[in-house]
Amino acid sequence: MHNRLNINMLMVALAAIAVIGCETTTEPTEPTLPSPLAPTALAAKSNNETSIGLKWTRSGADTVKQTSFLIEYNAVGSMTKLTLPVTDTAARTVTITGLTEGTIYEFVVYALNDTVKSPASPKVQWAPARRGENVPPYRLYSSASSSQGSGLGIFRAVGAPSVLTISSGGEWDLCFDDKESGNPKIGSPGQSNYVDANYAFPNGQVAKTVYFSDAVYVNASSLDDIYESEALTLPGSNGEKMFPINALPDSESGIAFVMGTRDETTKKYNFAKVLLKKQATGGYIQGSGASSYVEVQISYQTVNDVPYAVKAKFDQLLQSARTTPRKPAGE
What is the pLDDT of residues 155-179, one digit of tens each? Predict the structure, then answer.
């Protein structure tokens, strides 16, 4: 009887060891997913005063599957990071909403392979800017018109942007000048044939100081075609100019310009981008005689010295004095 008890106890102990051995057996671990490469060519545009559009591309060397993207952004100077997931991997564009006019934001984008995140893309900074895209767009008429305006007031002391006649020339930020036969121009009111040697209109109003970059954008049917990733420049002095319309670079659709209205007392700018629309006839000027006109769209920043209606650096001299055609990012 005593020997049987010892044998039974040994069998129980062996069974316990077998059970414990089974419970401590671990399942094989899954291999770690590979990380995608960082997205490239991140660029931005201002949709309106509360939203910004972003665009990026996948690294051409990336062989890893991308299942989604993640946008990370914050107001410059703020430690609060906001994120926005993007599940449509084919589009590679996104609109960021709920932003504040005049606030500069910093953006990066990550590619994801399931939960594995790529390194960050290069950063881009941008701020929301207002749009002026009247339907039809703003029309600037011939100087021979007795009832229609030839100038566009963008940064007015009171009121929204508006086409203005020569009686309000001191409010013009942009003008269409066809006073010289066969050589119509668009650009700075102070360099037009509307003013005298003292930059004054016939009624005594002095033209604003409006500077233009020499860079222009070709093949832009709207301002939504133009994304920015690198800083542009406006001249620190002597940047007022008129662009001869007949000598503009070849473009399948519109041509866009970078401009800034400068306060000569504070030396501060309000920045804008102007799109000169090409007509169905293939030219920029529509109609004839006193009824001829050009059409423009604008993106403009009402907060001064926030140069992100256009990704611009101000008060820096241009490296080149020639007009240089540029294409919208992504072409």
Answer: 988 888 999 999 999 999 999 999 9
Residue 275 lies in a domain: yes
Residue 66's contacts (CB-CB under 8 Å, 6 or more residues apart) are 36, 58, 89, 111, 112, 113
Q: For the chain, how many structural domains are there in total?
A: 2
Pairwise CA distance, residues 75 & 142, whole Å: 44
- The pLDDT mean for the chain works out to 83
Give yes or no: residues 134 and 116 share one domain.
Answer: no
Asked whether the predicted pLDDT for residue 29 surpasses 80, the reply is: no
Closest of 210, 192, 315 to residue 262, by C-alpha: 210
pTM, rounded to two decimals = 0.78
Distance separating alpha carbons of residues 196 and 185, to the nearest angstrom: 17
Q: What share of the chain is helix, strand, coil (3-state, %, to 5)?
A: 10, 35, 50
Per the structure block, which two tokens stand in for 43? 């660029």
Co-location of 115 and 153 in the same domain: no
Which residue matches tokens 């001869």?
A: 244
Quote the percentage of the chain above a pLDDT of 90.
57
99: domain CATH number?
2.60.40.10
Instruction: Kindly state whether residues 266 and 290 are assigned to the same domain.
Output: yes
Contact 56, 121 (CB under 8 A): yes
Long-range (24+ apart) CB contacts under 8 A made by 86-95 are: 92/39, 92/55, 92/56, 92/57, 92/58, 93/53, 93/54, 93/55, 93/56, 94/53, 94/54, 94/69, 95/47, 95/51, 95/52, 95/53, 95/54
> Has residue 10 got a pLDDT over 90?
no
Contact partners, residue 318, CB within 8 Å, separation at least 6: 213, 214, 233, 235, 239
Lowest mean pLDDT among 4-8, 81-85, 210-214: 4-8
Pair (157, 274) in one structural domain = yes
